[in-house]
TrEMBL record:
GO terms for cellular component: mitochondrial matrix. It comes from Thyridium curvatum. InterPro entries: ETF_a/b_N (IPR014730), ETF_b (IPR012255), ETF_beta_N (IPR033948), Rossmann-like_a/b/a_fold (IPR014729). It is found in: Mitochondrion matrix. Signal peptide: none annotated. The electron transfer flavoprotein serves as a specific electron acceptor for several dehydrogenases, including five acyl-CoA dehydrogenases, glutaryl-CoA and sarcosine dehydrogenase. It transfers the electrons to the main mitochondrial respiratory chain via ETF-ubiquinone oxidoreductase (ETF dehydrogenase). This is Probable electron transfer flavoprotein subunit beta. The keyword Nucleotide-binding does not apply.
Length: 258
């Protein structure tokens, strides 16, 4: 098996424990003064990449683990966190505060990054918890012409650049086998990400971080979609009690459910 050069895209998003609020203009979710952290699915990707190296699961070994993120200056925080978890180096694609990229633009950027970094495996979260698009991994595989395994809950390496991936699907799991190079998107059952220790956080500050611009990848922030309005979901209404099964059936008929 070829030595792995793993590219791990990570994204800075509103922390999963924070309840999002719509801004006053109803154009987006309010991000000012809100705690941000690494997208949880991307944490799984970093953890899995580091485990592949630590547990020597790939016969050819792991040559390099590179994390990449596009965002404002604060996006460097999630890159440093990923390096504290065990990634070797980072690439920060600088953007202005408030600028966003659609999934296709991200996929095109990653396509260029894969070519520049000579990566033969891309491990990324199945979705980010801000837009929940779940499109980037699939689009990247299409642009590169590589096989893909999405929503991975288990990754195993065989001989001859063979990789078997157990994927979460409706009603169960399925196992796919493909050859490197390939794309893998991660799901929650894959692993439990580690906490970065203080010594590793200090070491991460000395690891190389390359800075790039979107223009270096031939990418712009032009959008194909326009958000017309963002609103809070309607408040949930309380339920009602019925005395017996007949009452339940009557109520369901009344609501048009049966």
């Amino acid at each position: 098996m070829s030595a792995l050069r793993i590219l791990v895209p990570v994204k800075r998003v509103i922390d999963y424990a924070v309840k999002p609020r719509v801004n006053k203009a109803q154009t987006a979710v309010e991000t000012a003064g809100v705690k941000h952290s690494m997208n949880p699915f991307d944490e799984l990707s970093v953890e899995e990449s580091v485990r592949i190296r630590e547990k020597k699961r790939a016969p050819g070994g792991v040559e390099d683990i590179c994390v990449i993120s596009a965002g404002p200056t604060k996006a460097q925080d999630v890159l440093r966190t990923a390096m504290a978890m065990g990634a070797d180096r980072g690439i920060h694609v600088e953007m202005k505060e408030g600028e966003e990229l659609e999934p296709l633009s991200v996929a095109k950027m990653l396509q260029k990054a894969v070519e520049e970094q000579r990566s033969n495996l891309v491990v990324l979260g199945k979705q980010s918890i801000d837009d929940d698009a779940a499109q980037t991994g699939q689009m990247l595989a299409g642009l590169l012409g590589w096989p893909q395994a999405t929503q991975a809950s288990r990754v195993e390496f065989g001989e001859g650049d063979s990789v078997s991936v157990t994927c979460e699907v409706d009603g169960g799991v399925q196992t796919l086998r493909a050859k490197l190079p390939m794309i893998i998107t991660t799901d929650l059952r894959l692993n439990e990400p580690r906490y970065a220790s203080l010594p590793n956080i200090m070491k991460a500050k000395k690891k190389p971080m390359e800075k790039k611009k979107l223009a270096d990848f031939g990418i712009t922030t032009d959008k194909r979609l326009k958000v017309l309005k963002v609103t809070e979901p309607a408040p949930r209404q309380g339920g009602g009690k019925v005395e017996d099964v007949d009452g339940l059936i009557s109520k369901l008929k009344e609501l048009g459910a049966i």
